[in-house]
Model the fold of this input.
Amino acid sequence: MRALKEVAISDASIKLPDANMTTAESFPTPWLFHEPQIMEWLKYVAGEEGKTWGSLHIAYYSDEDLLVVNRSYLQHDYYTDIITFDRCRGNRIHGDLAISVERIADHAQELGVPIGQEAARVHVHGFLHLCGYGDGTEKEKRTMRELEEKYMAEAARFGMTW
Done:
């Protein structure tokens, strides 16, 4: 399984690809915002949630490849739009987001929203897990959705457009 594109964001800078990262140079994310906007927006979210920025690694996968990740690491046998790997240390954010570009596109079409809007929602959803929020109960799902909406409303300030 190979990520379509990987981005490592750490302490205010995007790490350039190295031998340990698989990056497709011409990988076109089908939305209008890019890693610098995502980084600044998620740093804002971290601050609003009382967290300190550490590092964030984002990898984009096909449905099939993210299914392999889901099976391998979580023993879940189903497609998903995002898997969050929490490596936070205390109040400092450290983690990985594994995202299916195909799930985002399908969900956007099903919901009748722009693909960029759904992509932003998925990114912030995974990031909120790193901030300590769950979505296992109905109450947690409501809280998560409210926070997604709150931060989505702020996204344009960081160049996030859809």
